[in-house]
Amino acid sequence: MRSYRALIRATARAALAYRLNLLLGLGAVLVQLIALLAVWQVILAQSPVNGFTWPQMRAYLLVAFAAGTVVSLMGDFRMAFRILDGDVALDLVKPIDYQRARFAEAIGGLWIEVVLIAVVVGVTLALTGGVDVPAGPGLALFIASMLLLVPLKFLIVYVSTLACFWTQNFMGVQWARLAVVNLFSGALIPLAFLPGWLATTAQWSPFAGLTSTPALIFLGRVDPGHGLVLVGVQLAWVLALWFGARLVWQAALRRLTVNGG
Q1: Is residue 125 part of a domain?
Q2: H helices then E strands: how many in the chain?
Q3: Which of 179, 213, 204, 183 is nearest to 67 (CA)?
Q4: What's the angle, vertex CA 182, arms to CA 202 and CA 55, rounded to 5?
Q5: pLDDT at 83
Q6: pLDDT at 17
Q7: Any transmembrane segments, and where (predicted)?
Q8: Per-residue pLDDT tens digits for 240-250
Q9: Which residues of 57-90 are buried (b: 16+ CB within 10 A; e: fewer)?
């Protein structure tokens, strides 16, 4: 455990050391948030659409922003480049579990992300008005959903990055992951705006737990019973992906190319 705690601290220090990269990444997400807020304000100015009012959509977008910022400092590109260069072989001789080590690195930047989320959400609420916060069971389910989002997002990024063992290309993998996640998580538009069959498929996929599930719970668009089911789906996907990632890692080791290429 001491080794993993050291990784958590090292990642936090590295994030602070590369403040420019951190701010540039935050700036990109902020531009997307501002653009989406402007677009949806115009769309919903006259009447609700698919049951969403403008105040609800504003809250939805803020939750989506928070969810998108969490685990954004994971450094999947560093992991990918070590795979592509063959340097990942050096990680195999370290007396720590590779998957747990990468998770520790993801957790290392979490506190910085939480601070950034608090600042951005606070400023946005001050400029655009407050939102209704769920109470009682709804708030507890929202917190549980946001906590489960951390390992869930890590695992989706981690497993997709392991694909570099086969593709020998990171950018293609990253673009494909972003496209799938943005559509099926509800990050770009709520899943309610998708065709019925596609929305149902997406809601039961692991991607819904990255945005749609915590957002719907926060807005109170699902009752506590349904919310508990959605959180249970998140937990089930975390467990399935954690152990599934072990199998992918074992298969990836057989593809390891020490000399790169």
Answers
A1: yes
A2: 13, 0
A3: 213
A4: 90
A5: 87
A6: 61
A7: 20-45, 57-75, 103-127, 139-166, 178-198, 228-249
A8: 999 999 999 99
A9: bbbbbbbbbbbbbbbbbbbbeebbeebbeeebee
Q: Which residue segment(s) compose the domain that 58 sits in?
A: 2-253
Amino acid identity of residue 224, one-letter, is P
Q: Give the pLDDT confidence score for residue 261 in this predicted structure.
A: 45
What three-state secondary structure class fits 260?
coil
- Give residues with Cβ within 8 angstroms of 207, minimum separation 6: 156, 180, 181, 184, 185
Residue 259 lies in a domain: no
Give the residue ranges of the chain where pLDDT is below 70.
Answer: 15-22, 25, 73-74, 257-261
Whether 55 maps to a domain, the answer reads yes
Through-space distance between the first and last CA atoms of the chain, rounded to whole angstroms? 34
The pLDDT assigned to 74 comes to: 65
Question: How long, in residues, is the chain?
Answer: 261
Closest CA to 67 of 204, 209, 175: 209
What is the domain count for the chain? Answer: 1
Cβ-defined contacts of 11-16 (< 8 Å, 24+) = 11/73, 11/75, 11/104, 11/105, 11/106, 11/107, 11/108, 11/109, 12/108, 12/109, 12/111, 12/112, 14/108, 15/73, 15/108, 15/109, 15/112, 16/112
Q: Domain for residue 150, yes or no?
A: yes
